[in-house]
From TrEMBL:
This is Molecular chaperone IbpA. Pfam families: HSP20 (PF00011). It comes from Pontivivens marinum. Residues 28-139 form the SHSP domain. The keyword Signal does not apply.
Length: 149
């Protein structure tokens, strides 16, 4: 029951179809649930992705931003001697997790803490694309400008 129906939002929004299509495909993108992750909104234009990477060292993790995606991957380095486990509950298998980034979203940085990888994202909309206020002039003001010109 992880699927969410976004169809009510389609009726009340204009121009957000791409956003809701991306949200629809998040749960059904063919990826496994490993490793688990959270996506958190930390401010108006700030986000935090937290990925559980227990058992991985920092040099075994990789983060790349390419083609509108953030790709997080991890691969354990080969050890000289594989331990003999009685029980192995901590999965350290290789993974690649892809996150589709919205327009003008970029990664600021990343850090590991207590077996979690935190990736900070920010949305920076260029000034030219930000909304501008358009002044409304009355017909009298327009005719006065025409007469004085």
């Amino acid at each position: 029951m992880r699927n969410t129906d976004f169809s009510p939002f389609y009726r009340s929004t204009v121009g957000y179809d791409r956003l809701f299509n991306l949200l629809d495909t998040v749960a059904d993108n063919g990826q496994t649930g490993y490793p688990p992750y959270n996506i958190e909104k930390t401010g108006d234009d700030a986000y935090l992705i937290t990925v559980a990477v227990a058992g991985f060292a920092e040099d075994e993790l990789s983060i790349e931003a390419r083609d509108g995606q953030l790709v997080v991957s991890g691969k354990k380095s080969a050890t000289e001697r594989e331990p003999s486990y009685l029980h192995r509950g901590i999965a350290t298998r290789a993974f690649e997790k892809r996150f589709q980034l919205a327009d003008h979203v970029r990664a600021l940085g990343a850090r590991t803490e207590n077996g979690l990888l935190h990736i900070e994202l920010v949305r920076e909309v260029p000034e030219a694309l930000k909304p501008r206020r358009v002044e409304i002039q009355s017909a009298k003001a327009l005719s006065a400008q025409t007469v004085s010109a």
